[in-house]
Amino acid sequence: MAVEDLNVYYGDFLAVRDVDLQFGRGEITAMIGPSGCGKSTVLRCLNRMNDLVLGARVEGLVTYHGIDIYGPTIDDIEVRRRIGMVFQKPNPFPKSIYDNVAYGPRVTGMKGNLDETVEKALRGAALWDEVKDKLKQNAYGLSGGQQQRLCIARAIATHPDVILMDEPCSALDPIATSKIEDLMIELTKEYSIIIVTHNMQQAARVSNRTAFFTAEADEAGKRVGMLVEFDDTKVIFGDPNDNRTEDYISGRFG
Question: What is the H or E stretch that residue 52 is in?
């Protein structure tokens, strides 16, 4: 995937300006930065989730395998099937564990054995052994970490290429967070992952490349999100090229 000259508006408000990014296959890309710098806004542009926000407008180019996903003939539902999303707070449906995972394949009309699809997704999310004997139980009975892994299973059940994760561990304890991080690394064997996180240690642990965003005042005094630096994670955390990156990483601001 790639982003070129991306500008995002909410009504007349320019939320993010002039973003250029490229996302590698089989990699984890982390987006970090202080609150309000546009990280989640950019993430939601990558599978057209901002289409669901009243007044949101996206300018620039967002391409998936070279195809503009905002093109006039592109089906936004198909975009979201190929580019799945896991949200900040675990959000299982008020259904059984099985029906949560089966939901996507059912609504998209996927062919094949549904039981096998559900099992494969749960195994892919490292959850099968914990839930295989209670698939008909309500998903709300799972722990927070299990619910988040269930949401990951639900995302991969439709066979996406890319998984977007918006602060996927912020509501979890350290043990559950560690499991999700291990899972993310394992999933890169089949998927590309793009994660927004406020946890810089997490970005340093799991990502291949890191994009640092900040927000600065425009001529009217309104704060606008912008990309400061994008490089290999070891460069961003070890020898960044921009003083603003170094100040954020070292805790001098943000």
Answer: none
CATH superfamily of 2-249: P-loop containing nucleotide triphosphate hydrolases (3.40.50.300)
- What is the rounded CA–CA span in Å between residue 206 and residue 30? 8
**First and final C-alpha spacing in the chain:** 28
Using CA atoms, how far apart are residues 15 and 40, in angstroms rounded to an integer? 11
Question: Model confidence at 56, in pLDDT bands (50, 70, 90)?
Answer: very high
Residue with the larger pLDDT of the pair 109 and 135: 135
Report CA torsion sign: 96, 98, 102, 106. Answer: negative
DSSP secondary structure string, 172-199?
A: S-HHHHHHHHHHHHHHTTT-EEEEE-S-
Q: What is the separation of C-alpha 51 from the centre of its chain, rounded to a whole number of angstroms? A: 16
Residue for token pair 């994670």:
233
- Round the average pLDDT of the chain to a whole number and report it: 94
